[in-house]
Specification:
Layout (H helix, E strand, L loop, with lengths): L2 E2 L12 H4 L5 E8 H8 L8 E7 L3 E12 L5 E7 L9 E5 L19 E4 L3 E11 L6 E10 L7 H8 L1
Parallel strand pairs: 1-3
Antiparallel strand pairs: 2-9, 3-8, 4-7, 4-9, 5-6, 5-8
């Protein structure tokens, strides 16, 4: 199992598009090409490899996330999960069959999980997990997307809290 980190879309936690728009939801996306993953890893993609796809700053509410097939792969079997390594690896997507997907196909919503999670308190990444794989792909591309809202404090609340205590 490898953790490929060089392909994630970065976020600095300060320049959210929503800050200028009054905390409106915004979309972040990352196109992941399997040939680029192979190059970044230095070897063929394998089952249980994790690709850090989207950096999410602390104080962010994730409304939803998903995967879209952009270019079909050439693997015999390839399923993808989307979630958090070290947590719920299929929080957003469980078993998207990329090997059978046509260009433009989206992953399905999960019936058992809510499509949003509580705001994250520490920076994290939304990760694409190679759940199952037969014959490592040498071609193919997916788009990982997330709908986010910056809910971090915009100013210090210390004076207001101190005033309430006195």
């Amino acid at each position: 199992m490898a953790n490929i980190t060089t392909l994630k879309v970065a976020g600095d936690g300060v320049s959210h598009p929503s800050r200028a728009l009054g905390n409106t939801p915004y979309t972040v996306e990352n196109y992941i090409n399997f040939a680029d993953v192979t190059t970044a890893k230095g070897s063929a993609i394998a089952a249980s490899d994790t690709i850090e796809a989207i950096a999410v700053p602390a104080g962010t509410l994730i409304l939803n996330a998903g995967v879209q097939c952009i270019i079909p792969d050439n693997a015999t079997a390839l399923t993808l999960d989307l979630g958090f390594t070290g947590g719920d690896v299929d929080e957003f997507v469980d078993g998207f069959d990329h090997a059978a997907a046509a260009a433009g196909a989206y992953s399905a919503y999960l019936a058992t999980d809510p499509q949003w999670i509580a705001p994250i308190t520490t920076a994290d990444t939304i990760d694409l997990l190679i759940a199952t794989l037969t014959d490592a792909p040498t071609v193919g591309q997916v788009r990982v997307w997330a709908l986010l809202v910056d809910v971090a404090p915009k100013r210090s609340t210390a004076p207001a809290i101190a005033a309430l205590k006195s």
